[in-house]
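Hi support team,

I'm filing this because I wasn't sure whether my run with acetoacetyl-coenzyme A finished correctly. The job status page said complete, but I'd like someone to confirm that the output block is well-formed before I use it downstream. Pasting the exact inputs I used:
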Amino acid sequence: MGNGIAQVAARAGFDVVMHDVQDGFLQRGLGAIDKSLQRDVDKERLSADEKAAIISRIKATTDLNALSGASLVVEAVTEDLKVKTELFGALDRVLPPESILASNTSSISITKLAAATQRPDKVIGMHFMNPVPVMKLVEVIRGIATSDATYEKIRALTEKLGKTALDCHDSPGFVSNRVLMPMINEAIFTLHEGVATRESIDGIMKLGMNHPMGPLALADFIGLDVCLAILRVLYDGFGDPKYRACPLLRQYVDAGWLGRKTGRGFYEY
Ligand code: CAA
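And here is everything the job wrote out:
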């Protein structure tokens, strides 16, 4: 999702530094940006010159210190509390004190991430949806210490990115995934129990509820490891067994069948 966020910010006119731990990941991200913008060039919604200008505003680096001049960092690393808190601690040391640290986490507590820094008032959740260039929503999450000034700046920035900011309090899974993941998990249970085929389950939700994708295809799109991680946050956060992950989901993740990104999930790609 990081490349989608970088693309949207550069398209809105911001200078962007895209950071990752390996050059290969950065090249893959830049490739995705190129492909996504090219769709708009092909549809004559963007000129080739505009596309080149957007790409020129994005610098890719594996050096965290290259972020030292950033007024905002949007973190979009793996959905793992330890990885995220370590990164927040490191970013806190690199960034100027006035900079804002946002997380694109899909479920992890913003309050916990903020506690890993010396600037909890400047830590906030900016939860983008996939595919970022297409989806209009940014779920904006305030941690317990997030200041009004930080919140107002992020709301205004979200509008500048051409997105709609909708807020919620810091609670496991926020609103989006607290509602979405139980639906996906239940769809996996229906598959697991042999209630219907994958095509029927997805078709019922597409044709019957007008969803653009069925829940199993959507799980593959999001990543089955990400779905499992979010369900674990819900299960641990609420202590309620209704959020327990379907054994079939756990088994697929154990097998390395993580969805589109690995070529196999509930479907083959
Ligand atoms: N970059 C730019 N544009 C893209 C794109 C991308 N990566 N992917 C699709 N598009 C554009 C296409 O160009 C097309 O644009 P126009 O209609 O304006 O010409 C439009 O999106 C539709 O694309 P397609 O016709 O290729 O395919 P589609 O109609 O099947 O739509 C989809 C694809 C937009 C992904 C649609 O299936 C969809 O909305 N799916 C649900 C997505 C969703 O639920 N996302 C949220 C996931 S949850 C999450 O992200 C958060 C979390 O925490 C887990």
